[in-house]
Amino acid sequence: MFEIVHDILDVRTLAQQVASQVDGAIVTFSGIVRGTNQGKKVLFLEYEAYPEMATKMMERIASEIRDTWGLSAVRMQHRVGRLNVGETSVVVVVAAPHRDDAFAACQYAINRLKRIVPIWKKEVFEDGEVWVEGPAETVEVP
Amino acid sequence: MKVRVRLFAALREVVGQEEVEMELTPGTTVSGLWEKLVSRNERLGAYGKSINFAVNHEFVPRERELAQGDEVAFLPPVSGG
Predict the structure, then answer these.
(1) How far is B76 from chain A (nearest CA, A)?
(2) pLDDT (tens digit, 9 = 90+) per residue, A15-47?
(3) What is the ipTM for the molecules in this complex?
(4) Within a domain: residue A25?
(5) At A137, phi and psi to the nearest 5?
(6) Could A133 and B77 be called an inter-chain contact, meaning their C-beta atoms sit closer than 8 Å?
(7) Which domain holds residue A99?
């Protein structure tokens, strides 16, 4: 349900896992490796995770979604290793009885993932490389 | 007491290791351990203002006291997605 993987991600398979007769909406999000960042051409990305903690934080996000929207049909996968431009780095799927909650919860999940799930990306350019840092903020302790 | 330190991304590259074991005196806090690491490798100091602290896969405040066998991680601002 919440995984760090080395293989190609398949959002359709994940979406099928949450399909059920009670939910009328499935929202999926796929994060794709962009070919440029801040005007610079990106050759490829290297993703690294703290896998044991990353899956635990994904579970925390799912639990927050349960508390806020009462939804439990949530899946998240993030890929690590070398990813080329155009490849999928992350997928999030949420199913809900109605679309408003499915959209809101899916957006919440990806926004939260980008703030508390310990995963980092290095951008590799023609003339160098850099570890990307998200906003420096203290993550709240549960 | 001994704790295990996990290092990732820029911190892993600065230290040149994914993991180090540290011998600490009882009562050492997470930030005390960080300062000990910085004293061994001054280049780490630049990261001190932006890192978060984790013990046994959970975020903790910097004053958290460590225990024998803890797994500690110093996390640069995450950039997944």
Answers:
(1) 7
(2) 999 999 999 999 999 999 999 988 899 999 999
(3) 0.96
(4) yes
(5) -150, 155
(6) yes
(7) 2-127
